[in-house]
TrEMBL record:
HTH gntR-type domain ranges (all copies): 9-76
Keyword Thylakoid among UniProt keywords: no
Protein source organism: Paenibacillus pinisoli
SMART domains according to UniProt: FCD, HTH_GNTR
Official protein name in the record: GntR family transcriptional regulator
UniProt cross-references to InterPro entries, sorted A to Z: GntR_C, TF_FadR/GntR_C, Tscrpt_reg_HTH_GntR, WH-like_DNA-bd_sf, WH_DNA-bd_sf
Record key words, sorted: DNA-binding, Transcription, Transcription regulation
Pfam short name (any one): GntR
Molecular function terms from GO: DNA binding; DNA-binding transcription factor activity
Amino acid sequence: MADQKKESLLLKDIAYYQIKEHILDERFEPGRFLSERELIELLEMSKTPIKSALTRLETEGFLTVSSKQGIIINDLAIDRIIDIYDLRTALETFNIQSIVGRGLSESQIVALKANLEATEEIVGRLNVKEFAKADHEFHLLICKFAGNQEIYRVLLNYQDHLLRITLRHLKKDPHRMRDFLQDHQDIFALLQQGNGDCVDRMKEHLQASKRKLLF
C-alpha cells in the first residue's frame, strides 16, 4: 500500500511538470482546448495523477477545467503582466538597495559572475529556453542575497509565469537576449562597486523589459 501511494505521488508530480512544460513553451498554446483522454494518451498514465496535476495547475492559474468545455489553457492578460512587472520593480529595487547598503560578499560575487558567464555562453548559442532560466536565476540570486525571505517567496511564486512571458517574447526576437544580458552586466558592475545608481539601473531594466514584452 505504501509503495502504491509513493508511486501515485510520483506520477502526479511527473504529470504536473510535463503538462506545465507544454504550457510554458506553448506546445499547449493559450486558448487551446484539451481533454483528459488526450493527456492520458500523451503522458501514458492513468486518470488519477492527471486529475491531481490539473487541479494544481488550475490553482496556479495555468488552465481552467470546465465540466462542459474540458481543459482550457489560460493566457496571461496584459493587465496582469503589467501588474507583475510593476510588483517586480518595487520588490527588486528594494532588494538592490538593501545590498548596496552592506555590499556583496566574495561568494556572492562569484555566484553572480558564474551566472553572467553562463548566460553569455547561452546568448552566443541563441538558446531562448536556457536564457530565460538563467535570466530569472540572476534576479533570484540578487533576491536571495538581499535576505528578505518573504520577497523571495513572492518572486518565486511568479517564476513560472515570468518564464512563460519571457519565452514568448524572446522567441519573436532572440537577439534581444543581448540587451537583457548587457543590463545584467551593468547592474552587477554597479552593485559590485557599491554604486547606488544600480537601483535606478534595475528599475530601468525591468520597466524596459515590460515595454518590450508588451510591444
